[in-house]
Design a protein that fits this description.
Elements: E1 2-6, H1 14-24, E2 32-36, H2 42-54, H3 60-77, H4 83-97, H5 105-113, H6 115-130, E3 135-138, E4 145-146, H7 157-167, E5 179-183, E6 186-189, E7 194-196, H8 202-213, E8 217-222, E9 227-228, E10 240-241, E11 243-245, H9 246-254, H10 265-270, E12 275-279, E13 288-291, E14 302-316, H11 324-336, E15 341-346, E16 351-356, H12 359-369, E17 373-387, H13 391-398, E18 403-408, E19 412-418
Parallel strand pairs: 1-2, 1-8, 2-5, 3-5, 4-6, 8-12, 11-13
Antiparallel strand pairs: 6-7, 9-10, 12-13, 14-16, 14-17, 15-16, 17-19, 18-19
Length: about 425
């Protein structure tokens, strides 16, 4: 069993969908679970629909019509593949929009945004069947079971594994073809409500399927030839990494590398499943292998730049130590507000955190902290993470910018610096 994941860029138009068929035809007589993301920028557009619904904006139906037309045009280029399902899914969304949105925004988000992957798989699955690549479509919401958290639901591993194994059992009458098409990013809570697994979470979905199915390998098909030691959009002279360890991959992903979702690695590492990142435009190329520890030759300095950061310094108003009870309060607020810490450091009377700058969340955090703490902050910052660092690489990346916070371990250095 192999698990393939095709992201939004790899199914962004009719030509891309045809390319999915070309890639799958390279693996005849193999059982493959294919996890598909929403097409192109559909998730972004559905987020706008959600915002318009919550704000009761009259433009909501116009936004939805644009999404429908985008998918219909792709379907028409592919012999009307998925056209009936597109209509059905769009009608379901329109019915939702006629009702009052949930009071909790994240619940409204999951009701709407979770439909993007259903649209893409409707088109991909029917096109493949019409093209002589038989497959069945599996609704991920029936097998990915989570807690009740919206927008970042936590997978219930025992129940999810049981359901996936049953869905792929050869004795299952619905399991006729070798290829199964399913959705990334989405699932259902234990109460049956639609949920999403976190932005860009289709990689993670694929890893969940790979774990449950004891897959021989997982391949993420991207618009790049593999994993680089830096983002080629922002850095020159980048190097493709032929092999990297699970640990290096999860470190780089956690601190902002966009090639792999941070939660993807853990399920694969737990069952020693190799992960390949390959180019969907050059599927015969080797790509990057992510597996067990690699030798020193592969330890090339890798650096991640994460802009849009805010550095927050928190200190008790009574000049007391930042003790465990104070940290408990701070961490509780961060968890409640859905704010993830990218870097933290404490002294006797101050606790500093570097977080993504979401103005609404940051404002609520400051308000909640203001009763017991003094809060200072700096905006327009960048978090730089360098794995296998040396002084030359640090000097090159920092480039004389002010460093507001720095932490070093044996293999990794992190710095909060001013934006260039």
């Amino acid at each position: 069993m192999k698990v393939f994941k095709f992201g939004g860029a790899s199914v962004k138009d009719a030509a891309s969908v045809k390319n999915v068929g070309t890639i799958l035809s390279m693996f005849p007589d193999e059982k493959i679970c294919v996890v598909v993301s929403a097409m192109g920028k559909t998730t972004n557009l559905l987020e706008k629909v959600t915002e318009a619904w919550v704000n009761q904006d009259v433009a909501v139906l116009e936004l939805l019509s644009g999404i429908e037309q985008f998918h219909r045009s792709i379907a028409e280029e592919l012999n009307d593949s998925g056209k009936l399902l597109i209509k059905q899914i769009m009608n379901e969304i329109r019915q939702l929009l006629q009702s009052a949105p949930p009071s909790y925004y994240d619940a409204a988000y999951d009701l709407i945004v979770s439909r993007g992957e259903l649209l893409s798989t409707a088109i991909v699955s029917e096109y493949l069947n019409q093209s002589g690549i038989p497959n069945q479509m599996l609704d991920a919401r029936k097998v990915i079971v989570t807690n009740e958290a919206n927008r970042n639901a936590r997978v219930s591993w025992k129940e999810t594994t049981s359901r996936i194994v049953a869905a792929f059992d050869d004795s299952n009458p619905e399991q006729e073809a070798l290829i199964t098409i399913t959705q990334g990013f989405i699932g259902s809570s234990v109460s049956g409500q639609p949920v999403t697994l976190g932005r860009e979470g289709s990689d993670y979905s694929a890893a969940v399927f790979a774990f449950a199915l004891d897959a021989g390998q997982m391949i993420i098909w991207k618009d790049v030839p593999g994993v680089f030691n830096a983002d080629p959009r922002y850095f020159k002279d980048v190097v493709k990494l032929d092999r990297i360890s699970y640990r290096d991959a999860i470190e780089l992903a956690y601190f902002g590398a966009s090639v792999i979702h941070p939660k993807t690695i853990q399920p694969l590492q737990n069952k020693n499943i190799p992960l390949y990142v390959k180019s969907f435009t050059d599927p015969g190329a080797e790509g990057t292998l992510i597996h067990q520890s690699t030798d020193a030759k592969s330890q090339i300095p890798s650096f991640i730049s994460k802009p849009g950061q805010v550095l927050v310094s928190i200190s008790p108003k009574d000049f007391s130590f930042v003790a465990e009870d104070g940290l408990h309060t701070i961490f509780g607020l961060l968890s409640h507000m859905g704010i993830s810490i990218n870097m933290m450091q404490n002294s006797a009377i101050s606790f500093s955190i570097c977080v993504d700058d979401h103005p609404d969340k940051i404002k609520r955090l400051f308000t909640a902290l203001s009763g017991d703490f003094n809060v200072k902050y700096n905006r327009n910052l960048e978090l730089v993470t360098i794995r296998y660092y040396n002084k030359k690489v640090i000097d090159k990346i920092v480039n004389k910018r002010a460093v507001l916070l720095e932490q070093k371990s044996r293999l990794t250095v992190q710095m909060v610096v001013e934006m260039e």
